[in-house]
Amino acid sequence: MKTNEEVVREAYRLSEGSVLDGDGFRALFTEDGTFNDMPNSLTFRGDQIPQALAGFAGVFPDVHRELLEVHAFGDVVAVELRIQGTHLGKFPTPIGDIPPTGSRIDVPTADLWHLRDGKIESFNCYNAANVLLAQIGAGPDFKSAIDAAEAATTGV
């Protein structure tokens, strides 16, 4: 049986743009396992898990995860990493797609993997989404936020 660290390292290998095996990645999870994108408050289960991988790789087809530190503590594996890639696909947003910019991303990330009996029970990804957005030219729209707050306080 593989160690928990080996299972997690295999998950990273399967999610590389050059490999991208969503079904293999999903097979590492328990039946009710979850992939939690913490900054965006999204949870993926079952068949959604490989779809989430494919969706990200569709935007950044050369996605690579540079593992900086990997620490296994019983059934928990903590990883510090950088998610890297090139923005070559449409980036979906609630108001439309951001066209490909060709910009490189290098996003600081911390992942917590919880395993049970050699399978991933939950994968919590804490990526710096604000850094990713800034790197593809989608910085915050402070003017809209200020206008909305002013309208809410003045009733206008």
From TrEMBL:
Top-rank lineage group of the source organism: Bacteria
SUPFAM superfamilies per record: NTF2-like
Coiled coil segments of this chain: none
InterPro entries: Cyclase_SnoaL-like, NTF2-like_dom_sf, SnoaL-like
Pfam families according to UniProt: SnoaL_2 (PF12680)
SnoaL-like domain sequence ranges: 21-121
PANTHER family: ESTER CYCLASE (PTHR38436:SF1), POLYKETIDE CYCLASE SNOAL-LIKE DOMAIN (PTHR38436)
Annotated protein name in UniProt: Ester cyclase
